[in-house]
Amino acid sequence: MKKNSFIFNTNRCVGCNACVAGCSIENGTDFRVNWREVNTGNKIKHPGLPVFHFSLACNHCEDAPCMKNCPALAYTRDEKTGAIIHHAEACIGCTYCTWACPYDAPKFNPATKIVEKCNFCVDRISDGKRPACVEACPVGALDFGLLDLKEEDRVTPGFVDMGIKPSIQLIPLREENKAPKVENTDQVEIDEKKIEEWLPKPKDKVALDKEWTLVLFTIAVAGLVAWQAAHLMGAIDMQLIPFGIVSVLAIALTSLHIGKKMRMWRFILNLKGSWLSREIFSFSGFLGLTGFQLVTGNIWFGILALIFGICSLISVDMVYKFLTRKDGLPVHSGMVSLTGILFFVWLIEVPIVIELIILIKGSLYIGRKISLRLIRLKHFPALSLLRTLCLLIPYFLLGTQWELSLAISLAIILAGELIDRAEFYYESDVITPEKELRNI
Q1: For residue 55, which phi and psi values (nearest 5 degrees)?
Q2: What is the CATH number of domain 3-198?
Q3: Which segments cross the bilayer (predicted)?
Q4: Which CATH superfamily is domain 208-429 in?
Q5: Per-residue pLDDT for 203 more than 80?
Q6: Which of 19, 82, 99, 343 has the CB geometry, 3.0–4.6 Å to 226, for a possible disulfide?
Q7: CA dist., res. 336 & res. 328, Å (int)
Q8: Residue 153: C-alpha distances to residues 62, 142, 159, 328 (Å)
């Protein structure tokens, strides 16, 4: 079935950024936020490396992950042109779509505190014109047409085909362009380690300095759900005021992560497709039902709250399905579900279950650190030792004459979980064209 598509020829692109300028002029974008970007396969301009450029904007995918996963339903598809349209008035600025898109198309604008992206020049193509970026290209590297695309149309260096059917045809490099002809016989041998050092640091979509509020929020979710579960089993008391204080702090933490706080209610509009919507909905239900239980004393509210709480733990972990792990492992010791279980078993004080959970979390943590060391990535051995001690010390003192109080044990365990969760964000990444080009 034919559809409107970009056509990009890597053999012709000279990296002049005329397409970027054309897009910016047509759409009046902020000079700090380019809807189209040109990445290069040789940023340090080394004479012995391949030189080619890659111009990408939104590919208006058939199975668009930005539209599918946006919790606020801020994306729609124009049925006439196939364009994925972002609606600024509906965006809450949570940036989740920037994680979901492997082509780095949605851009967060710090001035407006919302996301924006290429709209396929929908007005132009509706009138039979070509997009502004295509019109601006002086060498014919970028084109536009009605095409019946195939899988082989998207095989080229630096482009990730995630099975989402992007509307772009890529004409791959000719063999002679894959390695430049260098006449200098005294050319210095290429040192891959040096090249990595010389390359500019890629932009991080996931960084601990930006996600610290999420570290605290996710730990708070695990703690509150564990508290409710232990309370239902009669192991620990739960009072309205302390629970309310922690709940308000958790909500405040998650609100700090979004651009438009007055639109927070839109978080739950996409329960059908977005794990982020499911997370906020289930956690809100958990808080409300627990509040009703504490006010009325009705145990059924508590049981229903716990069901919502378990769903919120699962949803929190599923929100991060788009992230790639530097260690390459599918399971992480800092998963919120595991943290919630750890808090719960300490609150109900069942030694054999505590031993099992510590064994699982400890093995996952040590295995991850070994993996990072084997691939020579930074793994913070001193911090790792501290995290491991926070897991083991309360256990080793359990049942001895030096046994710690529950409050002190939980404080030590909490410190370890904060380290583990912080490392989760530090060791996670999002696929982007710029980073894919570095791996060629």
Answers
A1: -100, 120
A2: 3.30.70.20
A3: 212-234, 240-259, 303-323, 335-360, 380-398
A4: Formate dehydrogenase/DMSO reductase domain (1.20.1630.10)
A5: no
A6: 343
A7: 19
A8: 15, 15, 11, 28
